[in-house]
Structure formats: C-alpha cells, structure tokens
Specification:
By secondary structure, the protein is mostly helical. About 75% of the residues lie in helices and about 0% in strands.
Amino acid sequence: MKNKEKLAIAAIYAVLAAIVRTTFQNEMLDIAFANAVLLIAVESSGLGYGIAVALAAEVLAKLVGVQPYWIAVPFAALGNVAMLASWQFISRYDLGSKFASRVFAIVPSSICKCLALLLGAGILWLAGALSLSWDQLLVELMAGFLGGAIMACIYTVATRKSAKYKKGAKKSAKLPAGHKPGAK
C-alpha cells in the first residue's frame, strides 16, 4: 500500500474513532470501540500511522465534545500511544497463531494505557488542573480489554476472509487445460 493510501486510511480511522466515541452513550463501550479502531489502524497500516490516528482521534474527540478539557487531550493521546506501541511490540510474539498473539497482548497493552493515563492524571493533579478518579481508570482498563478483544475478533475474521478471497482469485485465474496464452 502506498503512503498516500495509508494516510487517507489513517484519516478515515481517526474520524471513525471520534465518531464511535459518541455512538453508544455508554462510556465504556464508546472507549472500547474507539480502542478497537485504533488497534485495527495499527494492524492494517503500521505503528506510525496508528500513532497519527491516536493523536488525531483525541483532538477530534475534543472537537465533537467527548473530551471535556483541552489540557487532557495530550495525556489521553499519550495513553493511546502507550497502548498501541505495547500492542505492536507484544502481539509480534509467535504464540502459534496471530489470534493467540493478539489475545495475549490485550492485558499488557491495556495496563500500559492505564499507567500512562495515571501518569497524566498525576501531572494534572499536581498542577491542580484536573483529576482522574479510580472509577474512570477502571473504566479505561475494562474498555482496553474489551477493545482489544473486539479488535482481535474483527481483524482475525477480516484477514481470514481476505485470505480465502485471494486464494479463490488465484485458482480462478488459472487457464483451462489445453488453452494457450494469447489464443482465442
């Protein structure tokens, strides 16, 4: 895939992640599906584009009114970047199947996101700007687990369907017996 195509897809993922944050009117489901979109962006386009999507999605979330404070945007983005980077690193271990590797990466990447959010909340608390409750941190952790599970299922099914389609296309591209290329 070319860089322009990846950039266009990354922009679509960013908008989708921001839209998903307003869909369910349930904070945990909204965050879970946004996390799933971010993880799919990393799996399909790479870590660099995934990070760009994470940063853009947080700014868009603020613009659509989901994120209440501008000061929290960099720390929320930092949490997403921590989740994506740890996901990329941990899910690369070969556990016999891609699905098993993705499932294995759910817990550590969710914990990394919560640790980054806790760091951000601590900095904001020390500055007297804002605080993050333990309930909110638990919602983020559970949403990370759920988002990772959603991503693992969706992406695995999509890549299997794509592989079957590609195999079918290769089989149908074979010429019939006795047919010579260029002959009518």
